[in-house]
Amino acid sequence: MKRILVTGASGLLGLNFCCFFHRKYDVFGIVNTTELVGLPFKTIRCDLITKSAGDLLDEVKPDVVLHCAAMANIDQCERNPKEAEAINAVYPGLLAAQAAKRDIKFVHISTDAVFDGEDCGENGYREEDTPNPISCYAETKLNGEKCVLDSNPDALVARVNFYGWSTGGKRSLVEFFYNNLSAGNPVNGFSDVFFNTLYVHHLADILDELIGLNASGIYHVFSADHHSKYDFGVSVAKKFGFDPNLVRAVSWKDGGLTAKRSPNLIMNTDKLQKFLGHDLPVQQESLDYFYQDTESGLRDKIQGFVIQTK
Ligand SMILES: NC(=O)c1ccc[n+]([C@@H]2O[C@H](COP(=O)([O-])OP(=O)(O)OC[C@H]3O[C@@H](n4cnc5c(N)ncnc54)[C@H](OP(=O)(O)O)[C@@H]3O)[C@@H](O)[C@H]2O)c1
Question: What is the pLDDT of residues 182-198, one digit of tens each?
Answer without folding.
Answer: 999 999 999 999 999 99
